[in-house]
Design goal:
CATH class of the largest domain: Alpha Beta
EC number: 6.2.1.5
InterPro entries: ATP-grasp, ATP-grasp_succ-CoA_synth-type, ATP_grasp_subdomain_1, Succ-CoA_synthase_bsu_CS, SUCC_ACL_C, Succ_CoA_ligase-like_bsu, Succinyl-CoA_synth-like
Number of strands: 18
Helix content: 25-40%
Distance between the termini: 33 Å
Pfam family, one: ATP-grasp_2
Strand content: 25-35%
GO cellular component, one term: cytosol
Largest sheet: 6 strands, antiparallel
Enzyme class: ligase
Shape: globular
């Protein structure tokens, strides 16, 4: 699970990493009140799980509480890479002397973590990494040894960070390991004009396999889109995208392949929804209702290969959904594998005028793309 910036900030503060004073606001009046409490001049930052907020206009400086109010009104409701902004963080600005990059990421192939550091942090860090990879240091970290004082000094030196950043390097390692995170990133990590090392932004990804150990973090989670929260409550793997073809499948690999095929037919997927390998009719019905409730969706493609999930159970779920949800958008269904013939017969017997069946994934994607257009 990706944390919002304000959630990552709270973790950093708990572990002794310096962060600017900040408050979260759900409305423009709340942003103005927060700015008044923080001294007037503030930075208003969109809270979405997406990078590139600054370039998209989701991070802006406000000179006073009235400007914070107006800025929050402009940012709230924005679409940033398919994510709608529902809240902002209002933060105290700092006087920056220099920007750096610092992060930890899991290297699955090597079975260890990588510390990643650079003396050139900020919005252009991806371009720096692409143009001049030597400017970004990647230091392996043995999980059994962890980040000692000596290792922290090594990471800071390798990345061109000031020596006084070493304690922050160690503290962020504690965030990673003690919070069961797969990724901890600060961009930018800055040295202020008075010499303090401050995390101006933060990204933390928690390992869902450790969810049982972090019930409070998951209970407090607020999704970018209400459908994401609804899906999480139902145990569905759902991600809102920015297209018009709703996509449902069983298994992440199949769903990702379906997204690619839809895109190859000139359409853009509206979501990623994996109902899982052993989905029941009830799960299928819940997933279909979720996708149909998205106003951006113009057609829906259900692509299922029957294995543990039998195709007749999927078909029963679709029929059940049709009995409870008024279908106003075309639905294209491709069933193959276990009990596919019985599943197709169930849908044929229902004979809904907006339900279309296809024999192949390519054919189903082409039909869904055409209907969405």
């Amino acid at each position: 699970m990706d944390l919002f910036e304000h959630q990552a900030r709270q973790l950093f503060e708990h572990y002794g990493v310096l962060v600017p004073r900040a408050e979260v606001a759900d409305s423009a009046p709340e942003a103005r009140a927060a700015a008044e409490r923080l001294g007037g001049r503030v930075v208003v930052k969109a809270q979405v799980r997406a990078g590139g907020r600054g370039k998209a206009g989701g991070v802006r400086l406000a000179a006073d509480p009235v400007a914070a109010y107006l800025t929050a009104r402009q940012i709230l409701g924005m679409d940033i890479k398919g994510h709608t902004v529902h809240r902002v963080m209002v933060a105290e600005p700092v006087e920056i002397e220099r920007e750096f990059y610092l992060g930890y990421a899991l290297d699955r192939a090597a079975g260890r973590f990588l510390a990643i550091a650079s003396a050139e942090g900020g919005m252009e860090i991806e371009e720096v990494a692409a143009r001049r990879p030597e400017a970004v240091a990647r230091i392996p970290v043995d999980p059994d040894e962890g980040v000692t004082d000596a290792k922290a000094a090594e990471i800071a030196a390798a990345g061109g960070l000031p020596a006084e950043a070493a304690p922050t390097v160690r503290r962020l390692w504690r965030v990673l390991t003690e919070q069961d995170a797969l990724l901890v990133e600060v961009n930018p990590l800055v040295r202020t004009r008075d010499g303090a090392i401050v995390a101006l932004d933060g990204k933390v990804t928690l390992d869902d396999n450790a969810r049982f150990r972090r019930p409070r973090a998951y209970a407090a989670d607020t999704a970018d889109d209400p459908r994401e929260a609804e899906a999480a409550a139902k145990g569905l793997n759902y991600v809102k995208l920015d297209g018009h073809v709703g996509v449902i499948g069983n298994g992440a690999g199949l769903v990702m392949s379906t997204l690619d095929v839809v895109a190859s037919r000139g359409a853009r997927p509206a979501d990623f929804l994996d109902i899982g390998g052993g989905a029941s009719a009830e799960v299928m019905a819940g997933g279909l209702a979720l996708v149909l409730g998205d106003p951006d969706v113009r057609s829906v493609l259900v692509n299922v290969f029957g294995g543990i999930t039998a195709c007749d159970a999927v078909a029963e779920g679709i029929v059940r959904a049709l009995d409870t949800v008024t279908l106003t958008k075309p639905l294209v269904v491709r069933l193959d594998g276990n009990s596919a013939a019985r599943g197709r017969a169930i849908l044929a017997a229902r004979a809904h005028r907006l339900v279309h069946q296809a024999d192949t994934m390519d054919g189903a994607a082409a039909r869904a793309a055409h209907l969405a257009a």
